[in-house]
Specification:
The protein is of the alpha+beta class. About 20% of the residues lie in helices and about 40% in strands. A hairpin with an 8-residue loop joins strand 5 and strand 6. The longest helix is centred in the N-terminal third of the chain and has 14 residues. About 25% of the residues are buried. The termini are far apart. The strands form three sheets. A five-stranded antiparallel sheet has the order 9-8-7-4-10. A three-stranded mixed sheet has the order 1-2-3, with helices on one face.
C-alpha cells in the first residue's frame, strides 16, 4: 500500500483543517507531512496519526507540524513526542548537551523563543533548556 493511501485520512484532515504551507512528500519509504497550524489542529493531527498507527510502530511517517503563532513567553505547552521523552538541551542545537527530559504529554512553560525551531522551556520540576518546537503544542 502506498504511504499516501495509508495516511489518506491524516492528509485529508490536514487539508480540511487548513494547515498552512502544507507539504506532503514521500522519500525513501517515509512520508513527510510539513506545515504550520494552531495547537488544537496539531493535536488533532497527532490523534489521527495515533489512531492510524497505534504506538507509532511503523516508523514510516514524519510529521513536522509547527504551531508557533500566538505563543508568548509564559505560555503552557504540551510535549507531543511520538512515544519517547523530549530532550531538553543546553543550547538550541542537537549538538548541545542534554540537560533534562520532559515526558510525552507533560505540560511545560515557554521561557523564550530562540527561533522557529528551538524554544527554551522549563518543566514543573525546574529543568530548563532548549527543545525542538516540532514536539511542543500550545495548550488552547
Amino acid at each position: 500500500m502506498a504511504l499516501q493511501d495509508k495516511y489518506k485520512e491524516l492528509i485529508d484532515t490536514a487539508n480540511t483543517a487548513g494547515v498552512n504551507n502544507l507539504n506532503v512528500r514521500e522519500q525513501d519509504g517515509v512520508l513527510y507531512i510539513d506545515g504550520a497550524t494552531s495547537g488544537a489542529v496539531k493535536q488533532q493531527l497527532w490523534d489521527t496519526y495515533e489512531r492510524l498507527d497505534p504506538n507509532y510502530a511503523s516508523g514510516d511517517l514524519v510529521m513536522n507540524i509547527n504551531s508557533v503563532a500566538g505563543v508568548t513567553e509564559g505560555s503552557k505547552l504540551k510535549v507531543t513526542t511520538n512515544s519517547s521523552n523530549l530532550n531538553i538541551r543546553k543550547g538550541p542545537s542537537t549538538n548541545d548537551d542534554i540537560v533534562g527530559k520532559a515526558a510525552r504529554n507533560e505540560v511545560v512553560t515557554l521561557v523564550s523563543k530562540a527561533n522557529d525551531q528551538w524554544w527554551q522551556i522549563k518543566t514543573d520540576q525546574g529543568e530548563e533548556g532548549y527543545s525542538y518546537t516540532q514536539y511542543l503544542t500550545p495548550l488552547t
